[in-house]
Specification:
The chain has 155 residues and is an alpha/beta fold. It contains six helices and six strands, in the order βαβαβαβαββαα.
Length: 155
């Protein structure tokens, strides 16, 4: 596989988890979280390195199910913000970066070890890399950019 990007994770929810613009690690430890299995696995090494405690209330393997729960106000998720970008821009959800920990999920391009057409694989990899780059330029993956878009106050 080819690493493409480290996607920053942020706290996503309907209501502010606290009064601060960035969520400190200690506050994250107290916040009941919705988490996907993939994010939990991606966080395993980072969590140990940062001595990060998470209060995982529910683990769900469906981004859409997590989105539905968030839209109902049922908690917060620690996720890349890109799947929730439309809801954040529309003001239905908000995102908060972490104040004292940079957590990421790696985005990779998987490909066959011995492809039948290496030139085609290389061309596709270049296209995917360019598309990911354009998303970074537009702030699609930025928690800070998304959090400035719209922020709901505590309920």
């Amino acid at each position: 596989y080819t690493p493409l990007a480290a996607l920053p994770l942020g706290v996503v929810g309907r209501h502010a988890p606290g009064p601060q613009a960035c969520l400190p690690r200690a506050e994250l430890a107290r916040l009941p979280l919705l988490l996907s299995d993939g994010i939990r696995q991606a966080l395993a090494e980072q969590r140990d390195r940062l001595a990060l405690r998470l209060n995982v209330e529910v683990e769900i393997d469906s981004i859409e199910a997590i989105r539905a729960l968030l839209l109902r106000g049922s908690g917060h998720a620690l996720m890349p913000v890109s799947p929730f970008g439309e809801d954040i821009r529309a003001g239905r959800l908000s995102a908060w970066p972490l104040a004292d920990a940079a957590l990421n999920r790696m985005l990779v391009l998987a490909q066959a070890a011995r492809p039948a057409d290496p030139a085609a694989v290389e061309a596709r990899a270049a296209l995917v890399g360019a598309e990911i780059g354009s998303h970074f330029e537009r702030g699609t993956f930025s928690v800070a950019a998304q959090s400035r878009t719209h922020r709901r106050s505590p309920a």
